[in-house]
Every structure is written in structure tokens, then in C-alpha cells.
Amino acid sequence: MPNIECRFILAGRKRIRNTYTYSVSTKFLDSFSHLFAETLLLRTDRHFQLYTRAKNNKVWINRTTSGVVVGGYTPQLNKIKASAVSGNIGEALIIPSIAATLKKPLNKMQFARIRKPRTMSPDYIVHLIPSEIKSLWKLPLSIWSIMPDVLPVEAKAGFNKGNDYPVKGLNQLHNFWKECNTSGDIRYIGYGIVASINIVGTNRIIISFYLFIKKWPTVTNTALLSQTADYLKVNAKEFFV
Fold first, then answer.
1. Which residues contact 224 (CB under 8 A, 6 or more apart)?
2. At 130, is the pLDDT very low, low, confident or very high (cuts 50, 70, 90)?
3. What is the pTM of this model?
4. Closest residue by Cα to residue 48 from 92, 79, 97
5. DSSP string of 16-76?
6. Cβ atoms of 173 and 152 closer than 8 Å
7. Does residue 214 surpass a pLDDT of 80?
């Protein structure tokens, strides 16, 4: 039964504003995967147990009947972990973790998986009223009162990968903002969440929810959209609260 440690962080300051820890039975990982993850993966709970323990189970062994080395190529003796598994586990936990922190029934959460052909889409949009955003990130009125009530959410997960968010996550938010600019949905530009899921081991998972809030009115949409995601991450204090 892993402990899920949720950390709520403002992306511009990299400072933890709030934490909440809850436990979930591994059997629920399978249910959560079917409910919330993009990829169909049978027995997510079994994958989780195998992937977070030492590789001393024979299922990891590749059958090898030759030890010859040709051109520097050597036999691969063991199987490797599929990145799709960590991604599936991470996506499965995002909505339940937000609901648990808010102490809100899971069936009351409003969300949707999203996609747009030929674009890099975030994983979800999530409906959070301003007071819920205030509660999760402990924000003052001057900040949470201007937030839209629909936020894009991108999840990035890995095994023992650290707790910072990868620039790929911000890049998908950045593409979402560009598409909003094109479609005229400009009030959503500059706002979103990157959830970095660090699967530390069988008994511990850390989810860092990085909230992006543009420094309005100092930062214009044009200034934000004209930069690359790499630049925005390096200079996050300049663009985000």
C-alpha cells in the first residue's frame, strides 16, 4: 500500500505551498488506470509491484543461448522497464490525488482527457473553482481570484527520477496556450499544471503539482507565446508567479 505524497508548488518560485499524504491500496491502481489513464494496460497493480522491487524475479530474464560478441554488441540478459508503465501509473493517480487533497468525492471531480490531432496535447483539462485552487496552493485572494476555472494538466512520471518537472511537460502546456490563442480562448493562456510523479518505491510515490500562473498584467500573452518552453523554464521567475 503506497503512500502518495502530494506537493503543491508555484512554478515561478519552486516553493512548496502545501502538502497532503494519503494511502491507496495497489488494487485500486488498476481501477484508477482504467478510469483515468490514456493507455490500456492490464493489471497495472502487478506491474507496479514488479517494477518497484529488485529484479530478482525470473520474469525479467531474457532467454539467451549465445554469448558471442560481434561488433561490440553483447547479449541483453534482462528485460527493461517500459516507460508506458510509469506514465500509466502517473496518469492514474492525478485526479484521485487532487480529489483526496480537497477531500472531495471522486465522482464529483469534473475532468476530461483531451487531444487535438497533429498537436502536443496535455493529458487533461480539470475544472477547479477558484476557492479550490486557493485551498490546494494556499494562495492569496489577489492571485486565485483571477484564475480560470478550467486548467490543462500534463502528467510526467518515472521511477526515481527526482521531483522537478521536465521541460516536455511545460512544452505541452505552451502548445495548449498557442492553440487557445489561435481559437480565441485567450483567458486560458498562461495557466496550467504540470504534475511530476516520482515513483520512489513500492511504498512511496511523490506527486509534485507545479501550478503555472502568468504574471498578469506584467507578462503579456505575446511575450509568453513568443518564447520557447526551455527559455520559460530557465526564466520561470520572470514569467510566472
1. 177, 189, 190, 214, 232, 239
2. confident
3. 0.90
4. 92
5. EEEEEEEE--HHHHHHHHHHH-SS--TTHHHHHHHHTS-S-SGGGBPP------BTTB---
6. yes
7. yes
